Amino acid sequence: MTKLFHEIIDNRSALVTLVDVNIKTTVATTRLGWLWWVINPLIMMGIYYFFVHIIMDRGEENYHLFVLTGLIAWQSFRAALTGTTNVILKNKQLIRQIALPIGMLTAIPILVQLFFNSFGIIIILIWNYPVAGIHSLSVVPLLILIGLVVYGLGLFLSVINVYLRDTKQIMAYVLRAGFFLSPILYPASRVLDSAKLPEFVKTVFNLNPMCWIITALRMVLLDGRMFNWQNFFTMLLISLMIIQVGLFWLRANSSRIIKML
Predict the structure, then answer these.
(1) What's residue 259's pLDDT?
(2) Is the dihedral of CA 161, 163, 169, 172 positive or negative?
(3) DSSP-derived secondary structure letter, 60
(4) 195 pLDDT above the threshold of 90
(5) How many other C-beta atoms are found inside a 10 Å radius of the C-beta of residue 160?
């Protein structure tokens, strides 16, 4: 991981430039520009609030903010993971001609999505301002944790996508299933406290990192209280271990990847 830090420091100008270009390119693809990143989560919130809370009569008080928090966290995770999966093929010219480190390039989609994710977080803080306070700053380490989880997974998926070009399409189905298997439209307690579900289902559900992260974000943004820092550091340690293994995997395949591009 030390080598990765040196690569980022040595190529920091390129990193900043590429992140800036990706942000501007993403904004330019919509006619509403920056406004779209404010409207989009609100539209999605309205749709799910209408069908779940109004039509199906499910969900508790402030269900609109409950859903909005889950959607923002999940969309950031999904978009960043999709971007990291395709990062090598998308930047093959930069890898071949300029020899930019793949490990650094993998971080770009994550940084871009964390930037856009901040719009949604600000909306929630303004909307639910009575509970906002100094504890709200703990949202930052949670967003960083999302980025680290995606980075670790992205190191593996980006390489696999070079060998198996359908990986991005397969991940679209996996992420679609992950949406409903994550506590976005419902609280995690609905699964964990259910007497109808076997324990192994609850264990598998808990293995989803977004399960805890979404719940922790709701605690901070909606309830105005802190999450369990011990759980946070446990997930942080696991994420760093996955990243370290992913870097070994990337470097072991780097020469072959370049030949295949």
Answers:
(1) 76
(2) negative
(3) -
(4) no
(5) 17
Number of domains present in the structure of the chain:
1
Reported pTM: 0.91
Residue 54 CA to residue 66 CA, distance in Å, equals 14
The rounded distance, in Å, linking the Cα atoms of 6 and 76 is 27
Domain of 41? Answer: 2-260
Residue 70 phi/psi, 5° resolution? -65, -40
Q: Would you report the helix, strand and coil content of the chain in percent, each value rounded to 5?
A: 80, 0, 20
Q: Nearest-CA neighbor of 66 among 171, 194, 227, 185?
A: 185
Distances (CA, A) of 23 to 68, 219, 240: 22, 30, 26
Report the distance separating Cα 44 and Cα 37, nearest Å. Answer: 12
Q: Which of 86, 102, 229, 222 is nearest to 165 (CA)?
A: 86
Question: Which residue, among 54, 65, 221, 71, has the nearest Cα to 135 in the 3D structure?
Answer: 221
Write down the pLDDT at residue 31.
Answer: 67
